[in-house]
Amino acid sequence: MSMSGGRGGRERLVVIGGDAAGMSAASQARRMRGPDELEIVAFERGHFSSFSACGIPYWVGGDVPERDRLIARTPEEHRARDIDLRMRTEVTEIDVAGARVRARGVDSGDESWVSYDKLVIATGARPIRPDMPGADAPGVHGVQTLDDGQALLDSLAHTRGRRAVVVGAGYIGVEMAEALIHRGFQVTVVNRGKEPMSPLDPDMGRLVHRAMEGLGITMVNDAEVTKLLTGQDGRVRAVATEDAEYPADIVVFGIGVRPETALARAAGLPLGAHGGLLTDLAMRVRGHENIWAGGDCVEVLNLVSGQEQYVPLGTHANKHGQVIGSNAGGGYATFPGVVGTAVSKVCDLEIARTGLREKDAHRVGLQFETVTIESTSRAGYYPGASPMTVKMLAERRTGRLLGVQIVGREGAAKRVDIAAVALTAQMTVEQMTALDLGYAPPFSPVWDPVLVAARKATAKVRAR
Amino acid sequence: MSMSGGRGGRERLVVIGGDAAGMSAASQARRMRGPDELEIVAFERGHFSSFSACGIPYWVGGDVPERDRLIARTPEEHRARDIDLRMRTEVTEIDVAGARVRARGVDSGDESWVSYDKLVIATGARPIRPDMPGADAPGVHGVQTLDDGQALLDSLAHTRGRRAVVVGAGYIGVEMAEALIHRGFQVTVVNRGKEPMSPLDPDMGRLVHRAMEGLGITMVNDAEVTKLLTGQDGRVRAVATEDAEYPADIVVFGIGVRPETALARAAGLPLGAHGGLLTDLAMRVRGHENIWAGGDCVEVLNLVSGQEQYVPLGTHANKHGQVIGSNAGGGYATFPGVVGTAVSKVCDLEIARTGLREKDAHRVGLQFETVTIESTSRAGYYPGASPMTVKMLAERRTGRLLGVQIVGREGAAKRVDIAAVALTAQMTVEQMTALDLGYAPPFSPVWDPVLVAARKATAKVRAR
């Protein structure tokens, strides 16, 4: 084990994790301070830097033709910007008192301590894989990394059978189900919840359910997977629940991720109720002046519920990195929190949510009214107008907007941004009824569906 | 002349104008109060009620197959809701002191006075038609009413020539140019401004110019029409500017509208600098407790500039009607103002704006920074990602958002709603950089184009 040091007066920024949050932080810090002022060393244990995990389902489904399209910036590109990115190098310990990290070559096994003046923890997430028989059998896949995606594609290419089971019906589960349909598989989705797409309330998830059935996907709700059955060759052959068995040549797990915070925990850094690192508004780890954390390993403040939440999304990771890099580079920026916006699609059905679902609002003690309206994507008389369903939650008495869910065809998903901004500004649904939104027959009815929902919510709040 | 009266204790609400604002007001008032409490009499001088003027270009272009699709509610449907809608009946005088209006049958010429307890003025707009030789010749058309649209369609069907000239390159001019291309005409657009689409700054209008040329439209900028030349048959044969003549078998004027406020002016009601009625926040005509006005005959407060503005758009007219009907029905609602949002399209190029253009900001004394960025509609690696240009204006020092213009393909237009809500909430561009907008590869790059613009604007404001 060696000890690197001797930096000739330059500060050293060490980054753990070479993906969205870590490399955004490194890049932004580099923009703020040149290599003569700040040395930047980044460690990534995998084979790839700065890739779009959100793009994996589209690569697996064939919409994105090749893996490398998902890589936003290669290690060489980072190095060309004077970022010393060390691939296949894992950090195995953070010594906070000594201001150093221990790094180990994944292939070589060589270890060394690297000291830091400033540290960024961007260790990401690890997929949840239930501890059950057969969970590691050949034919069972996750889709967290590009390596996972490649392994799945190889498996799809070599499997003779055509039956796939997806476990989980959140964003990844639903997107993977569609991807597997595109690859010519018969797909069954086994889901613990009452309806697919648990980021929505079940009444809205029901609309997604119908669309999935329309694609030929078999949807099994209210079902907990108990074990994976394997054949004599050791490969997976079925997924078992308490009630049934679903034959499977391929199984894909998409039941979510947890913050990868084992290193942080061992170092005594503060973790929240969801296991993620806790930071302040400048993305500094609480109580630590020179340590920042961001991306899928941190918890974020939900501005609507007022509580910390775990929201592992690339869009937040990029913003965290930007904020961390500005601060670590001697500037100033903050990440105030999220409102819980997410969008997805199944075939041409667009799915969007922001703010709180009914159960979120109950959990934090809010009383509220809900409305659900049907409208159209364009003026009713304009060709291509398609139905759109908008659900809206508003606080009782105050009328403050609490959440919006939208399911529909073209133009449904990004309409949720109207509500995302309104939530950030803490608008009431009555204030929303006066919003000056874009109107022309090809783009909206004269009352935008979000305004129709806001009007109905206003009437309901007023009536109580 | 007769005098109607004797209402058995019921109040009478009189509405002048049977289109969006007037009939929305009547409908909402009826929802609030039944016919035993409130009598509603509405006068419309034309042949149609509650039609979508915004839809006329799409009807003329053939996207909307028939006229009646543009009628939201027929006179019979209004009457079935106990609204006494009198078609082809013109109000010729408002007697404010006597609380009565004089109505005249357009066809019969019969006149009578009708008294009111509450009055709604929704007289709409009249198209600007320059006072020049040939302006009334056969073959010269406007597109304000359904009758105008029908006359134009008849003219298109019977004209042997295939050359059309559109005068004006605002929303209507550009939409009509495309409609005429769809009908197989060679189209020249003669435009007074430097670039088409004057609701945008010229640098953004330039992008629309290119798209119009791509459709085969001949665009003539910086050109003022001086006269229309007619042939021996009296029909229009060319449009003349100072420099040139443009042969024309059909001429369509789309150079905007003015508030139709002759009645209001004669009655001594308050008008603003743009000739529109001035109202308070409840849409009451200033100084008049029992008179409301809304739609294309009023001026509205621009919440960004702090000044009254004339914005004749159906979306505002419907909101005005809603607010007026609530108040006239004994409830309470307000219309706080507009931020100047508008969207349109030329072929598949979407065009959007909100807030102030550079010249608007100059006019009201604001100092500002501008940025223009290029991004894409979807993640760069996702199929169908197309370029999008976003221009953003932010106030110097404070960084307050002042305006956004967007030109691009799918998803460009309604993205402006993000900025419309942010303007309403008086956000700074730096606050906007933290907005939790929907992200998934089919819908947006990981940094939404609006966020990219906000980041660049933030950097520019900070640097000054």
Automatic annotation (TrEMBL), chains A, B:
Recorded GO molecular functions are: oxidoreductase activity
User: Which keywords annotate this record?
Assistant: FAD, Flavoprotein, Oxidoreductase, Redox-active center
Q: Lineage of the source organism?
A: Bacteria, Bacillati, Actinomycetota, Actinomycetes, Kitasatosporales
Which ranges carry the Pyridine nucleotide-disulphide oxidoreductase dimerisation domain?
A: 344-446
Q: Where is the FAD/NAD(P)-binding domain?
A: 12-304
Question: Which family would the database say this protein is a member of?
Answer: Belongs to the class-III pyridine nucleotide-disulfide oxidoreductase family.
Task: Report the protein name in the record.
Answer: Flavoprotein oxidoreductase
The protein's required cofactor(s) are namely: FAD
Keyword Transmembrane among record annotations: no
